[in-house]
Amino acid sequence: MSSVQTLDSQHQAPSAWKLGLGYAAMIAAAAALFLVVRRFGEALGQPGDVAHTPAAASVAHSDVLMHVLLALVAIILLGRWLGKLFLYVGQPRVIGEMVAGIVLGPSLLGRVWPEASAYILPQAVAPALGIIAQLGVILYMFLVGLELNSDSLRSRAHATIAISHASIVTPFLLGAVLALFLYQSLAPAGVPFTSFALFMGVAMSITAFPVLARILTDRGIDKTDLGVVALSCAAIDDVTAWCLLALVVGVVQAKVNGAVQTMALAAVYVAVMLLAVRPLAMRYFGPAAEKHPQPRMAVWVLVALLMSAFVSEWIGIHAIFGAFLLGAVIPHESDVARDFQEKLADIVKILLLPAFFAYTGMRTQIGLVSGWQAWAVCGVIILVATVGKFGGTLVAARATGLSWPISAALGVLMNTRGLMELIVLNVGLDLGVISPELFAMMVIMALVTTIATTPLLHLLMRDRAEARPE
After folding, report:
1. pTM of the model as a whole
2. Each residue of 138-159: pLDDT tens digit?
3. Cα 14 to chain center, whole Å?
4. Computed from CA positions of residues 419, 420, 422, 426, in that sequence, does the dihedral angle turn out positive or negative?
5. Distance of CA 373 to CAs 164, 369, 384, Å?
6. SS3 65
7. Which one, out of 111, 202, 265, 335, has a CA that is 20 to 30 A from the CA of 33?
8. For 49-80, b where at least 16 C-beta lie within 10 A, e where not — what string?
9. Does the CA dihedral 62-68-69-73 come out positive or negative?
10. Tens-digit pLDDT profile for residues 365-403
11. Distance (Å, rounded) from C-alpha 350 to C-alpha 302?
């Protein structure tokens, strides 16, 4: 039975023209509402000075490698131990890795034992650790792309796009409205309201595609109908969100024309990958190809992976989507796909990916969130983020013909933010659009929404066939 037949068994899907009309109305209404929010926000006074992250102790250049190796050992061991603990209470291992990065940083170890934290994760190792982290994320997204069955997405392409974009538009608008109340107290001095509101909207709109994939994989439902639709929506969600982030970066840097050019180049790049690269992948890796991949094929796949990541980074939509897109165009049941999954999975998940959580933990200072007012603001951020993601997905999924339980499950899954949210927040902190205090609040939001995914999904789908492992 196909995905459409299974998921739409309780409700008739609307026609394509109705979906298109509703989609156009949603985008037009969202643009109009954001302009209204912008008009009110530009009338606000400029924010005051906010605290900046203090400089950490440095180490000699010759010792950087030693500290990077020590940091990797610490994050791998602590992440594994915490991963087992979270797994014991029904959470995916990746939550433990996320928490491990924060534990080793200034938020916990830095407060309890500052000397140890400065020795394990000194500021001087941040550039090297950041490169390792980005490489790990790139390879992981390539593996996620290899596992995605793109053929099963075509039957629900229109509905998937509508659901994913509704899950962006609703939290984006709520984030822009929330910016009206946070701007004067939590925005860095000199940041225009438009830049701050745009970034808050994008930060609220993110779905953590890699973390969502790991949650689905850990539960064994990544290849079920629900898992395929969720991964499809999350993939479209994050590609769109990264295009929006490119626009925000352009606005912040006063290069709006460059941002529009970025989105145009991204569209051309996706078209080339689907119309030119995918047929080549089907020819060399499809059913008619050799049964076992040759070493030279593995070399060319790696070269193509690096070039795809390079092109997407050059365009401005982040290298990870170039890696994912290349993985998605390679037939997921081909020998080369299985070969790469077997050889890369452990190295990427155990060694490289945890480096990103350590890198983020270095920059997170939860101690900046102090006092009941700050924690109340943090709670409001979590509430707004959840209502926007869950509500937007629920309404759109139901409107496209899915049943209430499936729509609610999709809403819960799309509210997963973890890894991608941390990437976006780091970009915002580097650009100076958000303050370290707001950065810490948003990191807490990313953790809470991600931790809430598994128990809520279990509660909603425990008795439904669509969420049973294959």
Report:
1. 0.79
2. 898 788 788 766 665 565 566 6
3. 30
4. positive
5. 33, 9, 16
6. helix
7. 265
8. ebeebeebeebeeeebeebbebbbebbbebbb
9. positive
10. 888 888 889 999 999 999 999 999 999 999 988 887 778
11. 20
